[in-house]
Amino acid sequence: MSPRRTPVVLVLLAASLVASAVAGLALGAVRMAPGQVIDVLLAGPGAGAGAGGGAAGAIVWDVRMPRLLLGAVVGAGLAVAGTVLQALVRNQLADPFLLGASSGASAGAVLVIVLGAGVLDFAGGAAVPVAAFAGSMGALVAVYAMARRGGTMTTGRLILAGVAVQYVLSALTSLVLVLAAHPDQIRTVLFWTLGGLGGARWDELALPSVALLLGTGLLIALARPLDLLLAGEEGAHTLGLDTARFRAAVFVLASLVIGVLVAYSGAIGFVGLMVPHAARMVVGAGHRALLPVAALGGAVFLTLADLVARTAAAPEEIPVGVVTALVGGPFFLWMLRRSTRTEGVAG
Asked: Where would I find the beta strands (DSSP E) of the chain?
């Protein structure tokens, strides 16, 4: 697609995000008409019952709106992180969940929550995001080191390394679950394992939003070196890019974004795999157009996935990570089969 048409794609995605947001605010255990939702939004938070407030206002502003915003932020951030990881390792199967970054972030956060009461008292609300960042960073570095041999990295080694790290982190999380003494801690561990947006609150939206905006802005500014790295490491080095230092810096940045987001949503898989691939099919591989399209696409996807999670088995709620896995699993198998054919391996 011509770069001139990228703004059209962004406008269409923005319109889709608005439509999915209205649907997300209207549907649930208590259903409202879209017109009623718009009246509540126009009345603003805290409006009286006669001005579109009352029970409907409380449902929209206090319950569904923070959840909707967190879903959009997490979906956008995971899609952007997946796009960048795919460029760094030059493999379209790279994904924060498949490479163990989400599991690492979850394990780090759970360790602090269950075993680090003193750390929580000392660092307050910053302890969990910091632990999630450390876990995400450690998992990515481990997978990268295991998958890269002799200066090359194959799809098979990358997937095997990611699966191995995920198993180790899952075992660690299970061990923490066994050691957890309080029911609240066990519920928290399950939340990190399955991923969910049900705990979203207004006072917890600031940090993930800042991480998304700063991280995406910096990565868009790095669009050209990302394009060079994706085209080939030797060519990028010839054109003056210090590929080792650049890759390490972007790994840290992507880990920071993933760690902060997973700290508030748990491990939600496959968003960073599917959305970048779909965006690349629409606007091509250039990161200056690809990153904002992936961000909006990720926001739309996770907003709709959360809507399905809240309504498919109502009044029961399905963890949104289960919904994305049901969609992403078959997609991953299709991508893996196509990738092995490209590498000349029997699929």
From this structure: 148-149, 152-153
Residue 48: what pLDDT? 54
| Range of weakest confidence among 39-48, 148-157, 226-235, 318-327 | 148-157
Q: Can you say how many angstroms the Cα of residue 288 is from the centroid of all Cα atoms in its chain?
A: 20
Residue 24 near residue 309 (C-beta atoms within 8 A): no
> What pLDDT is stored for residue 1 in this prediction?
54
pLDDT of residue 130: 80
pTM attached to this predicted model: 0.86
Q: Is 4 exposed, middle or buried (0-12, 13-18, 19+ CB in 10 A)?
A: exposed
CA distance 18 to 151: 45
In order, the DSSP letters of 112-148 are HHHH-HHHHHHHGGGHHHHHHHHHHHHHHHHHHHHHE
**Tokens 């163990």 belong to which residue?**
100
Burial of 254 (0-12, 13-18, 19+ CB in 10 A): buried
DSSP designation for 59: I
Q: Which helix (H) or strand (E) holds 165?
A: helix 155-179
Per-residue pLDDT averaged across 243-270, rounded?
84
Residue whose entry in the numeric block shows the structure tokens 């917890």: 204
Q: Residue 31's CB: how many other CB atoms inside 10 A?
A: 10
